[in-house]
Write a structure and sequence with these properties.
By secondary structure, this protein is an alpha/beta fold. It has helices at 197-202, 207-221, 227-235, 242-254, and strands at residues 3-4, 9-10, 15-16, 21-22, 27-28, 33-34, 39-40, 45-46, 49-52, 57-58, 63-66, 81-84, 89-90, 95-97, 105-108, 113-114, 119-120, 125-126, 131-132, 137-138, 143-144, 149-150, 155-156, 161-162, 167-168, 173-174, 182-185, 191-195. Strands 1-4-7-10-13-16-19-22-25-27-28 form an eleven-stranded mixed sheet. It has a nine-stranded parallel sheet with strand order 2-5-8-11-14-17-20-23-26, with no helix packed on it. Strands 3-6-9-12-15-18-21-24 form an eight-stranded parallel sheet, with no helix packed on it.
Length: 269
């Protein structure tokens, strides 16, 4: 049976696994589902059409599942949901909003660390093993791929894609897509600075795979012509490593929209 502190408020039609722990002054709204082993510390609020998986830890004052921050969105407007996977650490004052679209969902994967005061906007998609440091701000419809790491106070414009095992430096402002395995810093515009060696190690890549990524980086970013032309020349080579191919594909996709944000091409409104 779930352990619910006497000061907590758990509304009707809530699904709680037997060993969920709900701490002092928490509020769990109607329709919420929480999986086994998940812990809510003090003053956690979970509302909306929110489904949370197993063994997550939500720290004090985190606010999960509220409506998107959109002008003109009425209190009674129909919105979507939020799906959170397993073993995520959601630290103090984190906010995550549901999708703005009925039938759709903001999605958080597994084994992510969302540090103090980070924010994830509506319809964002976070894969697994991602780190958002303190005060990171993620706009709506952003996709963050496996293993990406944001340092403190970085922010992302809506519809940006951040490639897997990339690194976003502190205070960076992302306004266009970031290919996998790379380091980006600065803002207006942000710039690619190098290859994320630590990320490649975390991904378990061999030295040979890492060498191929380094060589691809030099061909893409450290020789003449435009990035897109360099990517086309590299793509024409035989026997490309799958990780290098992922870098090239990310560049091709980002070029499909004039602002370098592939997900902008998926807009339906």
């Amino acid at each position: 049976m779930a352990i619910i502190h006497p000061t907590a408020v758990v509304e009707k039609n809530v699904q709680l696994a037997d060993d969920v722990v709900i701490g002092p002054h928490c509020v769990v709204g109607s329709g919420v589902s929480i999986g086994a082993g998940t812990i809510l510390d003090a003053r956690v609020v979970i509302t909306g059409n929110t489904k949370i998986g197993r063994e997550n830890h939500l720290y004090p004052n985190s606010l999960i599942g509220c409506s998107p921050q959109i002008l003109g969105l009425g209190v009674d407007a129909e919105v979507g949901g939020l799906v959170i996977g397993d073993r995520n650490s959601i630290r103090e004052n984190v906010t995550i909003h549901v999708s703005k679209h009925p039938g759709a969902a903001t999605r958080i994967g597994n084994d992510n660390l969302l540090m103090v005061n980070s924010h994830i906007g509506h319809d964002a998609v976070l894969e697994d093993k991602i780190v958002l440091s303190n005060l990171v701000q993620i706009g709506g419809h952003v996709k963050i791929e496996m293993g990406a790491w944001f340092s403190g106070l970085a922010a992302s414009h809506q519809f940006v894609t951040i490639g897997r095992w990339s690194y976003v430096a502190g205070l960076a402002g992302l306004s266009h897509d970031v290919p996998p395995f790379l380091i980006v810093s600065g803002h207006y515009p942000p710039r690619i600075r190098g290859v994320n060696k630590r990320g490649m190690n975390r991904a378990g890549l061999t030295e040979e795979q890492q060498d191929r990524i380094y060589e691809a980086y030099k061909q893409l970013y450290r020789q003449g012509s435009t990035l897109l032309n360099n990517a086309k020349e590299l793509a024409a080579q035989d026997g490309l490593d799958e990780n290098v191919r992922a870098m090239i594909d990310a560049i091709f996709k980002s070029s499909e929209h004039r602002f370098g944000r592939y997900r902008e091409t998926l807009r339906t409104e």
